[in-house]
Each structure stands twice: as structure tokens, then as C-alpha cells.
């Protein structure tokens, strides 16, 4: 999926491919070969390269990648006893989350396609975002955004079409293709607030919450497990937006 998205050859980041003179900007997505230059990991950098080295073992879980691009499925599905719309038309890169959290893996449900819920799993939600924000969220956690219509916190929705209204495009320099970006999450039904617009779900985080407490709330409430890409147009771009 990354190779299709970037137009570059994707290889595992290993001890053999690491070099002290190479700058690996992100731990789980495109790296570039820039020598003798210091750059904070939160800075953005356009990546013009033929090869990407990805720390797959640390952040990605390719066995759960899935290409929904040509899938058409209007069947009734549930996750966490809530309606679940499969991301038809999108391509998913799976984030490594198995055994990541201290409460186990029940929130993910069981592996494999099914139309029904299982005990202990959380509902699915979608969050429109930019590529830089997606990287930061996967690397750390969600943080409250500026939109506070129904309260301060993290917003997501079970409606993938609604989430798509909030996505930002990312452009592939090598192929000229433009993609929307979404995060696919599981959300704790005991922690979420159903807003006046019922398709909006909110994890409330009061203003002034200490950073460590904020992170604790988020990790107990909403967990991204997939990055979704969808091609939206095919016009050659002027630059790559990382």
C-alpha cells in the first residue's frame, strides 16, 4: 500500500539499512536521505526519493492491511453493537496495536470478516485528518482540536462520508496522484459522548487537563488502528505534501 501511495520502492528499516549519516524523519512513514542536517521529528519535509525505509515491526502491521478500493458492500454490519460501514473505496495501512494497551485486545474484537459484534469490542469511528497529523497521532495520541462546537475534546464519526468532509489531501510526487487521508479508530462506548448531531462522537477533555491525564483519557477512549487513503484526482502536482 505504501509503495502504491508513494510511487517508491518500500523496504524494511533494519540495522543494516540504518546509517548515522542518514536522517530518518519519521519512524513509520517516508524517510529521505539527507546528510549532516539536524531536523526535529515534528518538522515537515518534502520527500523526493526512490526508496522508503519503514520501521514496519515497530509501527505497522502489514498482515492486517486491506485494499477496499474496488469493494462494494452494503451489508449491515456491527462493531461494538453499533453500525459499521466498511471503508469501501479506500486502502488501509494497518497500525500495529496488538498488545499495545494494558487492557488487552478485546477492544479490537476477533480477526477476520464478520457482520456481527463480539463481546468487549469497541465501535468503529473515522477521523478526517492530514498526513502530518496522522503521523503525530499514531506516534503519540490524539490531542483536542480547535473545533469545540459540542465541547472540548476529540471528535470522530461512524459515518465515513461525514469524516471525509474533514480530510486533507496528500500528493504523491512520483505518481502525481492525490489522496484523502482518514484514520480508522475504535472508540470506547463508555467514554464517548453522542452529540446533538448524532453521527458525531466526542471524547470530552476539559480545558486545563494536565498533559499526562489527557493522554490517559485519550488512550482509554479512542485508538487508531488503520490509516486510510483514497485517490481523489489524478492531476500532476507541483510538489509533494508530506
From TrEMBL:
Gene3D superfamilies: Diphtheria Toxin, domain 1. PANTHER family: UBIQUITIN-LIKE DOMAIN-CONTAINING PROTEIN. This is PARP catalytic domain-containing protein. It comes from Cirrhinus mrigala.
Amino acid at each position: 500500500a505504501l509503495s502504491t501511495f508513494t510511487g517508491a520502492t518500500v523496504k524494511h528499516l533494519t540495522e543494516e539499512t540504518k546509517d548515522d549519516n542518514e536522517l530518518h524523519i519519521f519512524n513509520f512513514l517516508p524517510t529521505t536521505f539527507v546528510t549532516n542536517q539536524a531536523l526535529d521529528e515534528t518538522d515537515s519535509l518534502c520527500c523526493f526519493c526512490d526508496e522508503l525505509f519503514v520501521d514496519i515491526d515497530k509501527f505497522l502491521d502489514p498482515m492486517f492491511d486491506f485494499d477496499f478500493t474496488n469493494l462494494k458492500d452494503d451489508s449491515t454490519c456491527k462493531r461494538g453493537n453499533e453500525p459499521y460501514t466498511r471503508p469501501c473505496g479506500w486502502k488501509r495501512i494497518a497500525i500495529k496495536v496488538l498488545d499495545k494497551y494494558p487492557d488487552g485486545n478485546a477492544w479490537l474484537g476477533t480477526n477476520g470478516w464478520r457482520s456481527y459484534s463480539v463481546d468487549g469490542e469497541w465501535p468503529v469511528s473515522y477521523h478526517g485528518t492530514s498526513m502530518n497529523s496522522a503521523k503525530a497521532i499514531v506516534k503519540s495520541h490524539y490531542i483536542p482540536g480547535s473545533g469545540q462546537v459540542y465541547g472540548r475534546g476529540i471528535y470522530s464519526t461512524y459515518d465515513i462520508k461525514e469524516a471525509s468532509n474533514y480530510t486533507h489531501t496528500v500528493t504523491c510526487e512520483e505518481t502525481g496522484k492525490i489522496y484523502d487521508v482518514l484514520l480508522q479508530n475504535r472508540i470506547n462506548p463508555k467514554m464517548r459522548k453522542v452529540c446533538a448531531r448524532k453521527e458525531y462522537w466526542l471524547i470530552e477533555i476539559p480545558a486545563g487537563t494536565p498533559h499526562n491525564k489527557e493522554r490517559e483519557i485519550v488512550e482509554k477512549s479512542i485508538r487508531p488502528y488503520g490509516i486510510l487513503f483514497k485517490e481523489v484526482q489524478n492531476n500532476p502536482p507541483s510538489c509533494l505534501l508530506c
